[in-house]
Amino acid sequence: MWKPCLVLATVTLLLTPGPAAACATCACGDPTLTSMGTEQPFAGRLRLATTMRAWGLTSGATQDTAVSLRELRMDVSAAYVPLSWLTLAATMPLQTRTVREVSLAQEQGWGFGDLEVSARATVFRDRGFAPNHLLSLLAGAELPTARTLKDAQGRPLSLDAQLGSGSVDPFAGLAYTGFQDEWSFLVSATGYLPTRGREDFRGGASLRTTLAAQYQPKARWALRLAVDTRLEGHSDTLGVSEPEGSGFIGFLSPDVLFSPTLDMVLQLGVRVPVLNRLTGYVRQAPILQAAFVYDL
Hints:
signal, 2 helices, disordered N terminus, 3-stranded antiparallel β-sheet, Lipocalin, Conserved uncharacterized protein
């Protein structure tokens, strides 16, 4: 008697549908390798990323007063899609920074920087599955989570040596993404409006844009080339305008993307300054970047 019952129970268990599981490519219908923040949204998508950046900058009103800054930064990011049209994201940076003056005086600091939170809404897609065209709106803010760094005598380090602004800095933007066979394209513009922070300093309002094209001849790797720009207004302290560092700068940004296994993307690239119209004595070094992205 128990044998037919056992067979019936086994067959019932095998025929009962379980929860579906699919890779990110299957769920969104597009095999394009994407960096963090440019992925196609679908409900339930959870994406984690770690991005390493190394960069340097020498700036001041003149060469004789210029200050040299070097930074190594690791951003830990998470993005979740609770609804098919809404992506929520957060990024926490861990930074180490060195500031050196012409007199060779030096300040060093490390720790967590300012947390960035954002929401991206997809307001247009030409079709629900495997869309060729996406239009998105972005809004968010950088929050003053970085602690105030101090020297051995307990005095706060200079503003250049601090890892955060001490202010709430909102931003908003829009982006278009297109997909066509082996090619994909990105056009985005984001405006930043810093508020007043440490020592009554307020950074200049800025507009940052990206124009990128990506060619993916194989499923596992792709080549990406972008033009990144930043247009920034004057900063000020206590209402006194400080034009140094304001103006326009453009970068040429080549990247290689590689997927060693399903749902994993490695990205290696550089941001090379090719057009510098910043006020004062400003020398921007190339920005080296490596990223690891994983879809859960």
